[in-house]
Amino acid sequence: MSRSETIEQYLRRLGSNDPTPGAGAVGAIHAAQAAALIGMVAHFSKPAEVSEQSAANGQHGSGSAAGRAGSGRSEMDFEGILSEADELTRTALQAAESDEEKFGRVVDCYKLPSGSDEERAKRTAAIREALVEATLPARAQLDLATAVVRLGEDLLDVCKADLLSDIAVAAEAARAAAATARITVEANLASIPEDSLQESLREHTQKADGVVRRAEELSALVRQRVLK
Questions:
Q1: C-alpha dihedral over 120, 122, 125, 130, to 10 degrees?
Q2: What is the pLDDT of residues 32-87, one digit of tens each?
Q3: Other CB atoms closer than 10 Å to residue 116's CB: what's the count?
Q4: Chain segment 157-178, per-residue pLDDT in tens
Q5: Distance separating alpha carbons of residues 193 and 42, to the nearest angstrom
Q6: Which of 53, 106, 111, 194 is the most buried (most CB within 10 A)?
C-alpha cells in the first residue's frame, strides 16, 4: 500500500487482477492498524487526562481503585509508548510498500527466459534470490507484531476500563499480522532449497507461533475482564 493512496484506492488494487498488493501487504496493514490503535489507547490513558477525570468525579487518594490506577499511570512512560507506537505504524506502512516491491520482483523473475539450460539456471537462481528477499517484509512483520503485543501488555493494567476492548482488538490485529507473516514465509519455503537459510526461515515461523499465542492470550485476558 502506498502511503499516498486512499484506503479505497488500495482496496481496489488489492481486489484487481494485478499480482500486487497481495497477502504480505495485507499483513503489514494489520500491523499498522494494531500499532495505531495502541497509540490511541496510550493517548487517552495519559496521566493528565486521568487526573482531570478524577478531579471531576471527586475521586482522591491512592487507597481507592481509581487512585491505584492513577498511581500506575503516573509511573508508566506513556510518551515512550506513543513514540514507539508511532514508529511501529510508520515501519509497518513501509513494510507494506516493501512487500509490493519485492513480490513484484518475484513475478518478474518468473517471466525470465528459460529456453536454454543456461537461461533456466539463471532463472532458477533469480527466482530463489527473489523469494528469499520477499520474506524480509514478512519477517519484519513478526517483530512489529511482537512489539505491539508487548505494548498492549504494558497498557493492560493502566489504561482506562473503556479502552480494554481496544487493546484486545490491537492484539487480534497483531495476531493476524503474525499469522499472515507465518504463512507467507511458509509458502516461500517450498521453493527454497534445503539449507541453512531454510532452517533460519523455519525459526521465524516458530517465532510466529509464539507471537500468535501471546496475542491470543492478551485478547482472552481482556475478554475475561470485560465480561466479568
A1: -110
A2: 999 999 999 999 998 764 445 444 554 443 344 444 445 456 568 899 999 999 99
A3: 9
A4: 999 899 999 999 999 999 999 9
A5: 45
A6: 106
